[in-house]
Design goal:
There is one protein chain. It is built from seven helices and seven strands. By secondary structure, it is α+β, with helices and mostly antiparallel strands. The chain has a domain of 137 residues: Gcn5-related N-acetyltransferase (GNAT) (Aminopeptidase), CATH 3.40.630.30. The protein has a seven-stranded mixed sheet with strand order 1-2-3-4-5-7-6, sandwiched between helices. Helix 5 links the parallel strand 4 and strand 5. The relative contact order is 0.15. The mean pLDDT is 94. It binds coenzyme A. Coenzyme A binds next to strand 4, helix 5, strand 5 and helix 7.
């Protein structure tokens, strides 16, 4: 953790989540997802109970509280559909579907308080999760990237075309561009990941980072996972 803290500007440090962090994490949720119900202390306690080593936070010394968090769990991803929603993948936000035998670290949330964004905190939290992937010999990490800029283009291009434009650098998306800069690959567009995400028009990108030490064996690639529903405008 100390090595990752060195990636951060002075005054910030990275560590695992503690019980006293719960109110600050709920406050970050409220700040970045004003239309969503923030995590409750009971849910954060459940995350801590099922997978404490996968709950990362960045603390700002002057603020004396958490300013960024990355909440992860292990999944046997073939138990799911490629286009399952966040709600399904997190078992309603409880993380009780965490499977210690899973080969995939699923990043359920990566959030940085708006007052502390663009300081490399998202990147440091991402690196922390990748260290865990390598330590545990997992195949990959995955996530569903919001596409908050998509609403500006939804009438002229599909979500799949939007993702391709962001990948080519022709369009900057405040979330997907950050993920791509951090080494994620955007695999495909899915609909209904966060149904209330108006900015993303309900769409998201499946993103993955493959562990170079231990890639998935043939036949276990994320592209092999079936979709739940047919999509009309991807
Ligand atoms: C996405 C998010 C976590 C990024 O956190 P952050 O701490 O600001 O990111 P970092 O400072 O580590 O930036 C990482 C990289 O992304 C780039 N980046 C960050 N924000 C960006 C933006 N708004 N537009 C374009 N690029 C951006 C940075 O330039 C950096 O790349 P570089 O070093 O090559 O220039 C943050 O914007 C956030 O919390 N958003 C709201 C919640 C959310 O939607 N989370 C994602 C759920 S899928």
């Amino acid at each position: 953790m100390q090595e990752i803290t060195r990636l951060l500007p002075d005054g910030y440090s990275l560590r695992l989540m503690l019980e006293r962090d719960y109110p600050a994490i709920s406050a970050i949720c409220e700040a970045v997802y004003p239309t969503e119900r923030p995590y409750t202390s009971d849910e954060l306690a459940a995350h801590h109970r099922v997978f404490p080593e996968g709950q990362f936070v960045v603390v700002h010394d002057n603020v004396g509280a958490v300013v960024g968090t990355h909440c992860t769990l292990l999944l046997r991803i073939t138990d799911f559909y490629l286009d399952d929603s966040w709600d399904v993948l997190t078992s309603g936000g409880s993380f009780t579907d965490h499977d210690p035998a899973g080969h995939t670290l699923y990043g359920a949330d990566l959030m940085v308080h708006p007052a502390h964004q663009h300081h490399g905190i998202g990147r440091a939290l991402t690196v922390a999760a990748r260290v865990l992937v390598r330590e545990k010999g997992l195949w990959r990490s995955t996530g569903g990237s919001r596409l908050p800029g998509f609403h500006r283009f939804a009438n002229v291009m599909s979500a799949e075309e939007y993702i391709a434009a962001v990948k080519r650098g022709e369009v900057v998306d405040s979330v997907l561009t950050a993920h791509l800069h951090d080494g994620w690959d955007a695999v495909t567009a899915i609909q209904g990941y966060l149904p209330n995400d108006v900015e993303s028009v309900g769409w998201a990108a499946v993103i993955q980072w493959i562990n170079p030490d231990c890639p998935p064996p043939a036949g276990h690639e994320i592209t092999q996972i079936a979709r739940r529903k047919r999509e009309s405008n991807a």
